[in-house]
Design goal:
alpha+beta; three-stranded antiparallel beta sheet; two-stranded parallel ribbon; 11 helices; 9 strands; about 45% helix; elongated; Archaeal ATPase; P-loop_NTPase
């Protein structure tokens, strides 16, 4: 693994300028280690007080009036674990503020007592972000391929861009990178996919191969049967109600391709669709080839 200074190169400059940054990476790829290295590097510089705070413990709190106090409590816990800060009261006047000002005022009063600037590095999960109503308002139309007109300065729109979930490209709103094109759908469809795996239905990829080719007729007939039997109860489980049929279809396809294959995807606001292209490598007389199809 690269030394901390190599891995964190450029980040201290952003912090010194008062900028912020978002780190994107797959699970188990070292995001937490990177942030912990950065915390140590900044604390060792003697220029800042730095806290590392995980919000994963509060990601399932959908109510803002409960969520903000939970974030403040998590910050308070981290202050208590910090030897340089534990003797300085944090959030001692919480009863004086409502949830709209609680976090800002708690930090403001706390920072007034410090001899150095305070830096807080948060780590959060993608699924936690996607559950936020303001994020859903922007992301769901992209999943549906629907073009929405957003006013200049729309806070929710800018918030999602700032999170790094989506970006603008040629007048369209699309996933920020190829990884997010995959994981946004996977994250939202994961519960359905796990349930399908538990039921061992649908069968996985080998069952849909015929003479080395994908048996489209059988696959679509199986999904049609599944949809007729389960659609109402399964759609009701989703926070993203409008996108639920698309997500269930992709969960169905994920279950299949996990037996040997992958899904290429096209997702962008204004396309009028969510495109998926399951692919499998199969052995035929001519050699290796890809059998694929496109679903709208």
């Amino acid at each position: 693994m690269l030394p901390a200074q190599e891995r964190c190169r450029g980040l201290p400059n952003l912090i010194e300028r008062g900028d912020y940054f978002v780190i994107h990476a797959a699970r188990q790829s070292g995001k937490t280690t990177l942030l912990m290295d950065l915390v140590k590097q900044l604390n060792d510089s003697g220029l800042y007080h730095v806290l590392y705070c995980s919000l994963e413990s509060v990601q399932n709190i959908a109510d803002v009036e409960r969520g903000i106090p939970a974030v403040v409590q998590e910050l308070n816990s981290q202050v208590q674990f910090n030897p340089a800060l534990r003797d300085i009261p944090f959030a001692e006047k919480t009863s004086e503020f409502d949830f709209n000002t609680l976090l800002r005022m708690s930090l403001s009063y706390f920072c007034q007592k410090l001899d150095k600037p305070l830096i807080i590095l948060f780590i959060d999960s993608l699924i936690g972000c996607l559950k936020e109503k303001r994020v859903q308002r922007i992301v769901e139309p992209v999943i549906l391929g629907r073009a929405e007109g957003y006013a200049w300065g729309d806070d929710d729109y800018q918030y999602v861009l700032d999170l790094g979930l989506l970006r603008e490209s040629e007048g369209k709103l699309i996933p920020a990178n190829p990884i997010y094109s995959e994981v946004i759908i996977r994250a939202l469809a994961s519960a359905s996919q796990m349930e399908m795996s538990r039921r061992a239905y649908p069968p996985q990829m080998p069952a849909y191969l015929s003479d080395g080719k994908l048996n489209m007729r059988r696959l679509l007939e199986d999904f049609q049967y599944f949809w007729q039997q389960h659609s109402e109860s399964w759609v009701a489980r989703y926070q993203y109600q409008e996108a639920a049929p698309h997500l269930i279809l992709h969960a169905f396809l994920y279950r299949i391709v996990n037996g040997g294959g992958r899904i290429s995807r096209e997702m962008a606001a204004g396309n009028g669709r969510l495109g998926g292209c399951p692919r499998t490598e199969a052995v035929a007389r001519e050699g290796w080839f890809e059998a694929d199809f496109f679903i709208i």
